[in-house]
Specification:
Elements lengths: L3 H16 L21 H4 L25 H6 L11 H18 L11 E6 L6 H13 L5 E7 L6 H5 L7 H5 L5 H4 L1 E2 L5 E4 L8 H5 L2 H12 L4 E7 L6 H7 L4 E7 L5 H9 L6 E7 L11 E5 L2
Parallel strand pairs: 1-5, 1-6, 2-4, 2-5, 6-7
Antiparallel strand pairs: 3-4, 7-8
């Protein structure tokens, strides 16, 4: 019997195929099918925005790196940057490989802003922040990748609490014009991993995220370094307009699905809120099955 993920992906593919006058339904894939570079006006407008700074501002000399509490990560059963083998490290190796292929491998250039990856879920509590942090650390363990982890859940941010660090100036402060990029991108004690927090709360988060300044920032984050991948922990998709806005600016989305909680209909509604040109991956979280039986990651590319 097909599970919630498979049924939702098949329906999403069927809808997109019907829009193109085709009745062919592809099976879920691990990698994106070769497609022509998509047209997405909301993102293509980025080319008209002048980006004057092509290299990241140097971190101020008096700005200390953020100390991520590694022992806390161990306590939560998360990935750590040590050399030890753990089951969760192995699981995220499976999950990250098709994402890296889309961003830097054979599928590079077939998606717009393919190195910008949002991590979300249908509802709160399904494990999106857990997934975003693990994914970012797993990317940082690559020999030739730099990673920026962004807390873009500006409604209810969790990354600082999960990493046991103090609140910092962040994304919303920058968008309001109260600081510079160099003030919000922080080094960490994990090699190759930088952090950008949510920042000071605002009642106008949707408008700030939809602003030209945000579009310019996203373009800079996508093009500044050719070896960087940016992971955004966003608000849950259903009930948060901010996530829909962000989905217009990124190339890939990872949607976390909690086993025995998220229904087929809920997942289907969540996927329908994402931009149809976004490559979507699904991660099955809190599964009772072992990795050998089912590793919980499907991939489908919306054409």
């Amino acid at each position: 019997m097909k599970n919630t993920i498979e049924r939702a992906l098949e329906k999403k593919q069927r809808i997109e195929a019907e829009k193109q006058g085709s009745s062919i339904l592809a099976e879920p894939l691990r990698h994106a099918d070769p497609v022509k570079k998509p047209e997405r006006p909301a993102v293509e407008d980025l080319s008209n925005l002048e980006v004057t700074q092509r290299s990241e501002p140097a971190t101020p000399q008096n700005k200390e790196a953020i100390e991520v509490n590694i022992e806390r990560l161990v306590g939560f059963g998360m990935i750590t940057p040590d050399e030890d083998f753990t089951q969760i490290k192995e699981e995220y190796r499976y999950i990250k490989r098709p994402i890296l292929n889309n961003a830097f491998g054979d599928n590079n250039g077939k998606l717009i802003n393919s190195n910008l990856v949002m991590v979300s879920s249908s509802f709160p509590g399904e494990g999106k922040t857990f997934t975003a942090i693990n994914l970012a650390i797993s990317f940082a363990l690559e020999q030739d990748r730099k990673v920026l982890l962004v807390d873009a859940d500006v409604i209810n941010p969790h990354i600082c609490k999960r990493l046991d660090i103090s609140e910092q100036k962040g994304l919303l402060d920058y968008l309001r014009g109260s600081c510079e990029v160099s003030d919000i991108i922080n080094d960490t004690n994990i090699s190759n991993l930088k952090l950008l927090t949510a920042g000071t709360r605002s009642h106008h988060t949707t408008e700030l995220l939809a602003s030209d300044k945000m579009l310019t920032l996203m373009s800079e984050l996508s093009t500044r370094y050719n070896d960087r991948i940016v992971v955004f922990d966003t608000a849950p998709i259903l009930g948060a307009s901010e996530t829909g806005v962000l989905s217009q600016m990124i190339g890939q989305a990872v949607v976390v699905v909690e086993e025995e909680r998220t229904t087929h209909g809920q997942l289907e509604r969540a996927l329908s809120q994402l931009d149809p040109k976004t490559a979507v991956g699904l991660v099955l979280n809190k599964s009772k099955k072992s990795r050998r039986e089912y590793y919980g990651y499907y991939y489908a590319n919306s054409k």
